[in-house]
Design goal:
Subunit structure (chain B): NDH-1 is composed of 14 different subunits. Subunits NuoA, H, J, K, L, M, N constitute the membrane sector of the complex.
Order of helices and strands of chain A: HHEEHHHHHHHHHHHHHHHHHHH
Oligomer: heterodimer
Catalytic activity (chain B): a quinone + NADH + 5 H(+)(in) = a quinol + NAD(+) + 4 H(+)(out)
Structural class of chain B: mainly alpha
Order of helices and strands of chain B: HHHEEHHHHHHHHHHHHEEHHHHEHH
Number of helices of chain A: 21
Number of strands of chain B: 5
Mean pLDDT of chain A: 84
Helix content of chain A: over 70%
Radius of gyration of chain B: 25 Å
Family (chain B): Belongs to the complex I subunit 2 family.
Strand content of chain A: under 5%
Pfam family, one (chain B): Proton_antipo_M
Number of domains of chain B: 1
Shape of chain B: globular
Structural class of chain A: mainly alpha
Strand order of the largest sheet of chain A: 1-2
Helix content of chain B: 55-70%
InterPro entries (chain B): NADH-Q_OxRdtase_suN/2, ND/Mrp_TM
Mean pLDDT of chain B: 87
Largest sheet of chain B: 3 strands, antiparallel
Chain lengths: 523, 549
């Protein structure tokens, strides 16, 4: 038996989480370093996965399969396709930056008590989330996926509710109330989604008698597993609802601005760039493959919802007074693009959506982490409290600008490629929706540039006059992300090569072919 | 003429004595119950003859050893194949020794053992006049607040009777799910109910509340027993027998020889329906299903917390075992009649328990309503009427009882000047003050909420899967919706513990002795093991999922 590489990518952060949590109270710096080293080692393993993965090879690679809970028909089955590899790499890549950016996030909670160890808890929870997210990208067993899809809510919940910004305009009491509200809202939304999915998971098992994704897909393809149209649609809705909450899609998106607004910037990145990706990823992997007919049936409605997300999220972002909530609404708009790309049912749309997941992860991480550095300096999340920062902290302002420009999909930066692909892919099949979605880009320019203008330009506000520029640690966090944004903006081929074969395969599972270009058809 | 012939002139020989059948009792197979009853009787003798100072140690030791020995007997029987191939009906048709019996008996005994540990805890309350005291009243007979109570406290009395009472209750619970005729069922019901009524009244603190709880429990329990008994009478009228097997045959229509004394009523469906409904009602009362749940919150709140934990776990196991046997062995022939009713009961129980729990402000009442919601989930598995249904219910009960005992054991630790601080507001910020205790309680709450990787999820999945396969998909959907509602209040407690500011004069967490620590540690371990690697126990439950008829 070969080395179980995929398991290792899960076990390493999981063990790291336990080890970090076990570090004694006095050695909290050691806990931070331990977490960082573990996350870097996980990144190395993820890089190995990328290297060992053959883009043109079989559908699922590096597979592992062991019996787990025989009575439930559950197996511990792992395997990655191109889409999963891309997101696995993204996750492993972002976590070290999240840890580094959150280096001091838990410091204020330290009370000196020997039993109360918030620092250890903070970093252990981040690693626990990483392990669970990676496993849900790798699981090819529906039940195995479900377990970790649900279980990751718990560490996320503690990260949101337990750790907040250092300063708050209304004082700590209000902040902690708002934080626990946000955490509960996050958990309840996702738990309800997950429980509805549980009913669908059970229903799927009753229909299929197995949880193995490849087996079910094969059985459906060769006709040995027939589902009544109504049944398939109900099951699809059960799965899709959970993923739509997680993604999040309008109208079940309202937890995201609360969660991202109240959480510290690194945790907000963890939510939007890592955990939410599981939702969109699962739409591609589970909704489309398990229920191809129902997916096609639901496409019109989902496209309209995605469109609403794009425009509505962008409009609300324009109106935000709070920097972090602005990024949250921008993310809702971007998730609209991703979901639109997935359900456009064209290979360009789906490749674009997958690339978008990766690029959105990197660009939001860059923007949000810099925003977090900014907020920690001034102690306020309100846009109106800033002004003229570029004169006192030029590096901070510059990196903030690049992150913002990536968010508005400036050509030359990575998100542009994916947004363009999604729009082209959507336009090929649904021109009207494609056209309306384009307004999302215009609005993105508006909210990003207005944000930059109000915070960074203009006369220097007295409160920010003494603001220090980025420190070495902070530059270490931001610089690599910006390099990646530029690199993937100019040369997206490495990611595209990994993703494209998997997208083709998914398309054929849904029995979809790309529409022929009009000009060619006219000949 | 021989003497015998002369004798026969003026006498007739009576039937030889050998014609009266000697009862044949399989002592070996009944050993778990017999051991527990024996232990309880010795406990009574200890109360009578052992000096007061030594009673506590003698009783605690005896109870633990008795339950452990009985558990060993259950394991030996199961290993001997009595759960599967050698399953049969013992004691002249009164007791069924089969898989479900042994599985549930094992669960009850372990729950009882952990219960003994929490009963025996004496490190939580502050010393009373230099004596270590447990959760039980110094002298149950003294009027609360009276001089005699003060004197009893001062003398350092403790109610060590709690231990034999627990053993008697356990003995009844062991018989309850394995009873194979209605009279045994009723006797078992009373044997385990009466000690529980008493135990509920024994709280050391808040004694009036405790006594009120006991009276409520007793009155409502007496009603339920009366219902059961009346139902048994009607079923006897219907079938001419109290034996499960015979009633089942009459229900199926395979018995034709009508008992002449009952010619007028036998086979009368009205008697069957009303009788069965009444017996089931009595069982649903013990289970705590809506609308027979009214006693649960008051009793759970008023009873001494170790008793609540033991009762919440073990009673539920025993009562669901009896319900399963009744529905699966006696009444499968009329499942088209009882399934719609049980559907309705399951739905209102799940939703009712979950919704009402949201408004609770006392942790014990909250857990009481949560136990009602869980009764609803288990009923969903009962309704499946399949082998998977049985095994999923068995698994759920085992998983649930350990979580429950652990959770209530944690409740005993959080204390202020008035004893246990059960009001939720006092739990605010517990996570800052005692992260470990709060984390352990959070694990139990997450298991109650059915979050994956805990036993609660595995159990919930098992019963919902069985229900879905049995064609009860709407029930599953309602089940997940009520799980979501229930999750809300479990999460609220976690929020309170971890994210709220600690109250400056908030409760302290008492440091327990090894006893309670063991109970909690076992609870956590079982919760996680059954959540991560449930296969072995699912196998066990599935092997045990066949009733003997």
């Amino acid at each position: 038996m070969s080395f179980p590489l995929l398991t290792a990518t899960v076990v390493l952060p999981a063990v790291g989480a336990i080890a970090t949590a076990a570090v004694p109270a006095a050695q909290r710096t050691a806990a931070k370093w331990l977490a960082l080293v573990v996350s870097l080692a996980t990144l190395v393993l993820a890089a190995l996965v990328v290297v060992r993965f053959e883009p043109g090879g079989s559908r699922y690679q590096l597979t592992e399969s062991h019996a787990w809970i025989k009575d439930f028909g559950v197996r511990y089955e792992l395997g990655v396709d191109g889409i999963a590899v891309a997101l696995l790499a993204l996750t492993a890549l972002l976590i070290p930056f999240v840890i580094l950016a959150g280096w001091h996030d838990a410091d204020t909670l330290e009370t000196g008590s020997r039993r109360w160890r918030p620092t250890q808890g903070f970093f252990a929870l981040i690693l626990a989330v990483e392990a669970m997210v990676i496993l849900s990208f790798e699981a090819t067993d529906v039940f195995l996926f479900y377990i970790f899809f649900e279980a990751m809510l718990i560490p996320m919940y503690f990260l949101i509710g337990g750790f907040g910004d250092r300063a708050h305009e209304h004082g700590e009491k209000v902040a902690s109330t708002q934080r626990s509200y946000a955490a509960v809202k996050f958990l309840l939304y996702n738990l309800v989604g997950g429980l509805i999915m549980l009913a669908a998971v059970i229903g799927l098992y009753v229909q299929a008698g197995t949880f193995s994704l490849p087996e079910i897909v094969q059985a459906r393809a060769n006709g040995s597993l027939h589902m009544a149209t109504g049944t398939e649609r109900w099951l699809f809705l059960g799965f899709f609802f959970a993923f739509a909450v997680k993604a999040p899609l309008w109208p079940v998106h309202t937890w995201l601005p609360n969660a991202m607004g109240e959480a510290t910037a690194p945790v907000a990145v963890l939510i939007t760039a890592v955990v939410d990706k599981v939702g969109t990823f699962a739409m591609l992997r589970f909704c489309l493959q398990l229920f191809p007919e129902a997916s096609k049936w639901a496409t019109p409605v989902i496209l309209v919802l995605a469109l609403i997300s794009i425009v509505y999220g962008a409009l609300l972002a324009v109106g935000q007074r709070d920097i972090k909530r602005l990024v949250a609404y921008a993310s809702i708009s971007h998730f609209g693009f991703i979901i639109m790309g997935i359900f456009a049912m064209t290979s360009q749309g789906q490749s674009g959506a997958t690339l978008y997941m990766v690029n959105h992860g990197i660009s939001t991480a860059a923007l949000m982490l810099v925003a977090g550095f900014l907020i920690s300096r001034r102690g306020s999340r309100l846009i109106a409290d800033y002004g003229g920062v570029q004169k006192v902290a030029p590096v901070l302002a510059g990196t903030f600008l690049i992150g913002g420009l990536a968010t508005l999909s400036l050509p030359g930066l990575a998100p542009f490629v994916s947004e363009f692909l999604v729009l082209v892919g959507t336009f090929a099949r649904h021109p009207v929706i494609g056209i309306i979605a384009t307004f999302g880009i215009v609005l993105a320019a508006l909210y990003t540039l207005v944000l930059y203008q109000r915070t960074m330009t203009g006369p220097v506000k007295p409160e920010v006059a003494e603001m220090p520029d980025l420190r070495v640690r902070e530059v270490l966090v931001v610089a690599p992300l910006i390099v990646l944004l530029i690199f993937l903006g100019v040369y997206p081929k490495p990611v595209a090569d990994i993703v494209n074969p998997a997208v083709k395969q998914t398309m054929s599972d849904v029995h979809q072919t790309d529409p022929k270009p009009e000009v060619e058809a006219a000949k | 003429m021989s003497a015998a012939a002369v004798h026969s002139l003026w006498t007739t020989a009576a039937d030889p004595i050998s014609k009266i059948e000697t009862p044949k009792i399989e002592y070996g197979q009944l050993s778990p119950t017999l051991i527990v009853i024996g232990g309880a009787l010795i406990g009574v003798l200890i109360e009578a003859f052992v000096p007061r100072k030594s009673r506590y140690y003698a009783q605690a030791f005896l109870s633990a050893v008795t339950l452990a020995a009985a558990f060993a007997a259950v394991v030996a029987l199961a290993a001997g194949g009595y759960g599967t191939t050698k399953a049969h009906i013992a004691a002249m048709g009164a007791i069924a020794v089969d898989g479900p019996s042994l599985f549930l008996q094992g669960t009850i005994l372990l729950a009882g053992l952990l219960g003994v540990f929490t009963f025996a805890e004496r490190h939580l309350d502050p010393l009373a006049h230099g004596n270590r005291v447990d959760s039980f009243a110094a002298q149950a007979a003294s009027v609360p607040g009276s001089d005699s109570e003060k004197a009893a406290v001062k003398a350092g009395f403790t109610t060590t009777e709690a231990f034999p009472l627990l053993l008697f209750a356990v003995s009844g619970m062991l018989v309850f799910p394995s009873a194979n005729d209605l009279l045994t069922l009723f006797v078992a019901l009373e044997v385990f109910s009466l000690p529980l009524y008493l135990l509920c009244a024994l709280a050391r603190r808040k004694r009036l509340m405790s006594q009120e709880a006991a009276v409520k429990y007793f009155l409502l329990g007496a009603f339920a027993s009366a219902f059961t008994l009346f139902g048994i009478a009607l079923l006897y009228g219907y079938a001419g027998s109290v034996s499960y097997a015979t009633i089942a045959q009459v229900v199926d229509g395979t018995v034709t020889n009508v008992d002449p004394a009952l010619a007028g009523t036998m086979g009368n469906d009205a008697l069957l329906l009303i009788g069965a409904a009444m017996v089931v009602m009595g069982l649903l009362f013990k289970v705590g299903a809506v609308p027979f749940h009214m006693w649960t919150p008051d009793v759970y709140q008023g009873a001494p917390t170790p008793v609540t934990g033991f009762m919440a776990a073990a009673t539920k196991v025993a009562a669901f075992g009896a319900l399963l046997r009744l529905l699966y062995v006696v009444l499968p022939g009329m499942r088209w009649d009882w399934r719609p009713v049980m559907w309705a009961v399951a739905i209102v129980t799940m939703l009712g328990g979950a919704i009402v729990a949201i408004t609770q402000t006392d942790i014990k009442r909250l857990l009481a309503y949560s136990s009602i919601a869980h009764a609803g989930f288990i009923l969903a598995g009962v309704i499946a009427t399949s082998r998977d249904g049985v095994s999923s219910v068995l698994f759920y009960l085992a998983a649930y009882s350990f979580v429950t005992i652990g959770a209530f054991a944690v409740v005993t630790l959080v204390r202020d000047a008035g004893g246990e601080a059960t009001h939720l507001s006092k739990w605010a910020g517990l996570g800052r003050r005692s992260p470990l205790v709060a984390a352990v309680f959070a694990v139990f709450l997450l298991a109650f909420a059915g979050i994956p990787l805990t036993s609660g999820f595995a159990g919930k999945f098992a019963v919902f899967k069985a229900a879905a396969e049995g064609g009860a998909m709407p029930l599953v959907v309602i089940g997940v919706i009520s799980s979501a509602i229930a999750a809300f209040f479990y999460i609220r407690v976690i929020v309170l513990m971890f994210f709220s500011e600690p109250h400056p004069e908030g409760p302290t967490v008492a440091v327990p002795s090894a006893l309670t620590t063991t109970a909690i540690a076992v609870g956590v371990a079982v919760t996680l093991v059954l959540g991560v690697a449930p296969q072995y126990f699912l196998d066990l439950a599935s092997q045990a999922g066949v009733f003997v008829r």
